[in-house]
Write a structure and sequence with these properties.
Elements lengths: L11 H14 L2 H9 L11 H11 L17 H21 L5 H5 L4 H15 L3
Helix pairs in contact: 1-3, 1-6, 4-6
């Protein structure tokens, strides 16, 4: 399947929201400033929980990203990239549970994979 044009997506604004969550997941600096210390007045209130709800509860991106092609994803590569992000988050949840504070997740060695997979997803999303 070829990549769809952005104008062909059903919910481009929701795609923007997804990209903003990926940007947050891809930056340890942002995570500490926004989720932990809340020290940057330029950042609206944010927390890891918002990203989790978007991926796992509000959409089927965590369980069936391919079904979101044409809705917010442009093609197979983006679906695969989201799947990789979810797998990295799942590894953290499987090992440490889902009840830690944001700050505690950020200190886990597996969190580096969440950051890396999110960076890779952003690269994929920028391919036009």
């Amino acid at each position: 399947m070829e990549n769809l044009e952005l104008s062909e997506l059903e919910y481009p604004t929701m795609r923007d929201e997804l990209i903003s969550y990926l940007e947050g997941l891809s930056s340890a600096d942002y995570q500490y400033r926004a989720w932990v210390s809340r020290s940057d007045s330029d950042i609206a209130y944010d927390e890891f929980n918002y990203t989790v709800h978007f991926l796992y509860d509000d959409t089927d991106l965590a369980t069936d990203p391919r079904s979101w092609i044409g809705i917010v994803l442009r093609g197979e590569n983006e679906a695969r990239a989201i799947s990789d992000v979810v797998k990295s988050i799942d590894k953290v949840f499987d090992k440490y549970g889902t009840c830690l504070a944001d700050e505690d997740y950020l200190t886990k060695p597996e969190w580096a994979d969440v950051i890396e997979s999110s960076k890779n997803a952003l690269i994929e999303f920028s391919q036009i």
